[in-house]
Amino acid sequence: MSVTAKPVVAAPARDAIAAPAVAPHQLAAFVVMVVVLIAAPFFVYPVFLMKALCFALFACAFNLLIGYVGLLSFGHAAFLGSAGYASAHAAKVWGFPPELAIVFGTLTAGVLGALIGALTIRSRGIYFANITLAFAQMIFFFSLQAKFTGGEDGIQAVPRGTLLGVFDLRQTYTMYFVVLAVFLLGFLVVYRSIHSPFGQVLKAIRENEPRATSLGYRPEHYKLIAFVISATLSGTAGATKAIVFQLASLTDVHWTMSGEVVLMTLLGGMGTVFGPVVGAFLVISLEHYLAQLGSWLTIAQGLIFVVCVLTFRRGAIGELGRLLRKPL
Amino acid sequence: MTATRVLVLAAALLAAAVPAHAQISDGVIKIGIMNDQSGTYADLAGPGSVVAARMAIEDFGAAKKNMKVEVLVADHQNKPDVGSSIARQWFDADHVDVIVDVPTSSVVLAVNQIAREKNKALIVSTGATSDLTGPQCSPNAIHWTYDTWSLANGTGSAVVKTGGDTWFFLTADYKFGHDLERDTEAVVVKNGGKVVGKVRHPFPTADFSSFLLQAQASKAKVIGLANAGADTTNAIKQGAEFGIVKGGQQFAGLLVFLTDVHALGLEKAQGLLLTESFYWDLNDRTRAFSTKFAERHRQARPTMAQAGVYSAVLHYLKAVEALKSDDGPKVIAKMKELPTDDPVFGKGSVRADGRKIHPMYLFEVKKPSESKGPWDYYKVRATIPAEQAFRPMDQGNCPLVKK
Amino acid sequence: MTVFGIPTQALFGQLLIGLINGAFYAMLSLGLSVIFGLLNIINFAHGAQYMMGAFVAYFALQWAGLGYWPSLLIAPVVVGLFGVLLERTMLKRLYHLDHLYGLLLTFGVALVVQGVFRNEFGSSGLPYTAPPQLTGGYNLGFMFLPTYRGWVVVFSLVVCLGTWYVIERTKLGAYLRAATENPTLVQAFGINVPRMITLTYGFGVALAALAGVLAAPIYQVNPLMGADLIIVVFAVVVIGGLGSILGSIVTGFGLGVIEGFTKVFYPEASNIVIFVIMALVLLVRPSGLFGRTA
Questions:
Q1: Please, what is the Cα angle at A67 between C277 and A16, to 5 degrees?
Q2: Half-sphere exposure of residue C67, counting CA atoms within 13 Å on the CB side?
Q3: Helix, strand or coil for residue B218?
Q4: Of B40, B43, B211, the CB nearest to C263
Q5: Where are the domains of chain C?
Q6: Using an 8 Å Cβ cutoff, are A295 and A96 in contact?
Q7: What are A249-276's pLDDT values in tens digits?
């Protein structure tokens, strides 16, 4: 499941690891991304962009787990959705201001991630996929039955509120830039996790786990930490989405949502930095375009899966990176 | 650097690919039909509702009156988040004036909020929740064709009066199912009946054998199906297998549409009791309307949901014409002012709480031997006059209604 | 006499119903198990192939007037051929990669197939009646058992045990098992391994289609009939142990019974009980009940 630019020759000794400097092409790509996203709301319907940004963050978080740890979780919707419910409830019923509601949602997902991660991290491959799915289904059932989640209706009429007492989030553009800021923050957290000593160890574990163990690293700990980071940031995406759309619903905890984030990451490029962002935007755009055509959307998504797996395994950014001979 | 150039190009292409919102002048009346175009409710509303809306626009004579009317269509996939996204986009960017149809109560409530926020209009035909004319009532919305209260009242009281006085509920375990069960139970008890048992099944469920067994064991005269769509048809189909009807029990479908009966076939559905507000074979006017509809929609007769869309759009256009404006709450107010008359429901009116009233009918599904051909499925068992068919205005807790 | 407030009579009825449902789970997970156990392919398209089987039965009736009994043979063959085509054109290319790519590919295929059928046939479901020889039922005293349901249990048991026997106890099965352990060596003996793999995949898919034909008279024939079923069936296979055919059969029937009891005591949770069990089993025995260690 890994796409590496060059094989790791040997895992470096612990105290000799230095954080690698930021590659110039990645910095350039980052700058371009930021500029485009700042300009975009003036050309494109901002609510659409906000949706794409939330999913982009979700995909980046998911990619941390699959691209850099090699674990396919089929239950990530649990984190997206439960953070959404937590933040919606906090904002609507407890009257939390939006920044605290999002933080609360994030923390909920983090705690959930720690619990589920602790129970599942020892599994691998298809077993891991299945057990994460099992827990996600249980979260779905809980969301369905619990009174506060509103069942099929979800939590509706969530107030946007005023950020830090100053910024009125009911103004679309204000909301947009807040979402952009949240996204960039999350993106940078993921980036830093990958390009750091921690990330190097993850890479080593992915390449050759027994060797990493023999060097003194405890793979379970590292995998668990990565899992928790992934879950927490998925939660941030979900919590923010609940505030933007003023709604938390069952769709976000349903197992097909877990499938969607896999699609976004696969299409964009697993194990690349910018892949999930591009993948999320592409999939959301596709949904938007094909929304009128009902089943054609499902067919299109299925075809993308098939084509990507057969011939396009590196995804859009992965292929681009290969063309340019530089990892993106 | 190449990377930069390529990424900028890609981003630009992406931005261009997403449709930019065009500015439409307000000389156009834009009607948005939002429903389930391809899922469980596609047959009872879906593309048929769009056909009905277009028929209404033609019959209103928009072209001759120099009124430009446009129809937009969207599939909300029965999800409140998709529905609210579409509603926002339609109201903000596409300048849609009114959203019509909207099955699935959770979506109804979400879109209702947004219509209120954006000062536009919403007319619900297929959605069922009676909360729309209750605590959630709004000066921007009208509930057109039917609601959970009228169904519960129709089927519940009529069935008890004809001897079905012990009930067992088979309820879909979600809010809509619970509401339907609650409303029907209240009516049954009020009319002197008794509820001897209930079981809640997950939503959706494919296999009802276990629940049907429990229903059989209860020996209730009536098995109330507080569910909809595939759950209802599966329960009935499997009920036939387990000899429920042959064993002397009767099914009462609390939310059944003509298309469900069509999918089941008379062999399995015969004897089913249900309440609807429209049937194509009621009178000459409904027959004429339905024949025209069938020609444009694969020979299928309209369900009450689709017929409701026709009636709603027609009345909406009349109100806009009288008001000479398409301002949301003003048109809704005008629609409440003007009495309604159309081939679908005949004469009726819209109350202050946003409830359209017209007669409801208790139907029984014919035996195969009684039917003369496809779509000839119902016989009328009782007619409930408009004043009695819907929840009294003072019982709804609607803030718009002065006590 | 009552057990937890439910009369024993009623309990027996629920037990029988549970066995009947279990028969479906067992047949479906059998196909999945064969495919994974022998080929290491995770066939997420299984639910869609089950649905195709039901549709082939429906078409056979509508277009050719062929009833239930011929469909029991036709549907598995037709859908099996589709499976063979799928394997030959697409799955073959993924054998050298991580299993999970096979999962993603078949997931994509499932989406495409379901989408196409939904486009054509909507989601309301099409009627299909049981053959006249199997209509009606028997009054067993504690419940009324429709003949067709009884047939389902018997037929599934026969198919399941038959398949298990062929794979575990015959020479053909031995070749198959050997081929997955060491394809090169088995190929060196002159056995056409790729063809065996293709046919085995086809066989697993045919089993799914057969389950679909069995299901058609009971459930509505509709494009989404396999969609939510697939994750349950996966859970069954995982609990039984990936690769253990006996494990899938036992777990399938067992789950049917457990689900049946849940429907009596806590019906709202009957959809979810399988996942709770799966989580518990995987925590205690990570390879499943009968599985060989990964």
A1: 115
A2: 7
A3: helix
A4: B211
A5: 17-123+137-284
A6: no
A7: 999 999 989 999 999 999 999 889 999 9
* Structure letter (DSSP) for residue A227: H
Residue of C45, C42, C108, C52 whose CA lies nearest to C79: C52
Contact of B71 with B35, CB cutoff 8 Å: no
Q: What is the number of domains present in chain B? A: 2
Handedness of CA A77, A82, A87, A89 (dihedral sign): positive
- DSSP 8-state symbol, C126: B
The span from the CA of C113 to the CA of C53, in Å, is: 12
- Domain membership of residue A200 (yes or no) is yes
In chain B, what residues touch A324 (CB-CB under 8 Å)? Answer: 2-3, 6
Among the partner-chain residues B11, B80, B113, the one whose CB lies closest to the CB of A249 is B80
What is the per-residue pLDDT for C282? 84
Surface of B (82-101) touching A: CB under 8 A: 82, 84-86, 88-89, 92-93
Based on the fold, state whether residues B111 and B138 are members of the same structural domain.
yes
Helix (H, G, I), strand (E, B) or coil at B197: strand
Q: What is the mean pLDDT of chain C?
A: 86
- In the predicted model, what is the mean pLDDT of chain B? 87
Q: In terms of domains, do B187 and B265 share one?
A: yes
Vertex A128: Cα angle to A124 and A130 (nearest 5): 145
Q: Is the dihedral of CA A93, A98, A103, A106 positive or negative?
A: positive
**Closest approach of chain C CAs to the CA of A72, in angstroms?**
8
Q: Which two tokens stand for residue C174?
A: 């031995």
Q: What is the CATH number of the domain that holds B268?
A: 3.40.50.2300
A191, A273 contact by CB (below 8 A)? yes
Question: B71, B60 in Cβ contact below 8 A?
Answer: no
Q: How many domains does chain A have?
A: 1
**CB of B391 less than 8 A from some CB of C:** no
What ipTM was assigned to the predicted interfaces of this complex?
0.83
Only one residue has tokens 């009939």, namely: C225
**Distance in angstroms (rounded) separating the CA atoms of residues B20 and A46:** 11
Query: What residue ranges in C63-182 does DSSP mark as E strands?
Result: 137-139, 144-146
Q: Return d(Cα A236, Cα A57) in angstroms, integer.
A: 8
Kindly give, in sequence order, each residue whose CB lies less than 8 Å from that of residue A147, ignoring residues fewer than 6 positions away.
none
Cα gap C17→B211, rounded to integer Å? 10
Closest partner CB to B18 (pick from A151, A157, A285): A285
The architecture in CATH of the region C17-123+137-284 reads Orthogonal Bundle (1.10)
Name beta bridge partners: B68: B28
Facing residue for C20 by CB, picked from B204, B209, B247: B209
Coil/strand/helix, residue B357 = strand
pLDDT score, position B8: 44
Res A243 pLDDT > 70: yes
Q: What is the DSSP string of A253-295?
A: GSHHHHHHHHHHHHHH-TT-SSHHHHHHHHHHHHHHHHGGGTH
pLDDT digits (tens, 9 = 90+) for B188-212: 999 999 999 999 998 778 889 889 9
- How many other C-beta atoms lie within 10 A of the C-beta of residue A216? 9
Residue A5 confidence (pLDDT) = 45
B20 vs A contacts (CB less than 8 Å) = 43-45
Quote the CA–CA distance of B111 and B90 in Å, as a whole number: 11
DSSP structure string for C55-66: HHHHHHHHHH--
Dig out the tokens for C69 from the structure: 């009994």
Contact B106 A43 (CB under 8 A): no
Same domain (yes/no): B38, B139: yes
